[in-house]
Design goal:
alpha/beta, single chain
């Protein structure tokens, strides 16, 4: 795994391709070489009701949460966090430059003793060259 969850204010959809952002995250995760391809999950949820800063409805946010199974050292996680954040920030540069937008990302470990897993995605994946 990791699981990427985007929580964002719905007004961001007027100037950002959220589906494209999900692909950007997935590809950035692959490029780090830190995560197994079959374990990468990216999903996005719009918050239709928000109140930000001074209350002006033009303000927006994108908050990215990355949950992954414990076992990677801090330096590896820091490097992956920065690489992913940089990729997202680059993707969002036009929106950040033109709109009131806050971007955040947090990576945290999941305790494997408290997180059972089962799945057949690997059995159904197409053979692809990995970076």
């Amino acid at each position: 795994m990791p699981h990427f969850t985007l929580d964002y204010s719905a007004n961001v959809e007027t100037h950002t391709d959220i589906s494209g952002l999900c692909d950007c995250l997935r590809l950035a995760a692959i490029e780090t070489g830190v995560f197994p391809l079959a374990g990468i999950r990216v999903r996005a949820f719009a918050a239709n009701h928000v109140s930000i800063a001074d209350g002006d409805p033009k303000h927006g946010y994108i908050d990215i949460s990355v949950r992954l199974r414990a076992g990677r050292d801090l330096e590896t996680r820091k490097a992956a966090t920065q690489a992913i954040f940089d990729a997202v920030r680059n993707y969002l540069a036009p929106a950040i430059d033109a709109h009131s937008l806050a971007l955040s990302l947090e990576m945290r470990d999941i305790d494997p003793a408290l997180s059972p897993k089962c799945g057949t995605i690997r059995d159904h994946m197409q053979k692809v060259d990995q970076p």
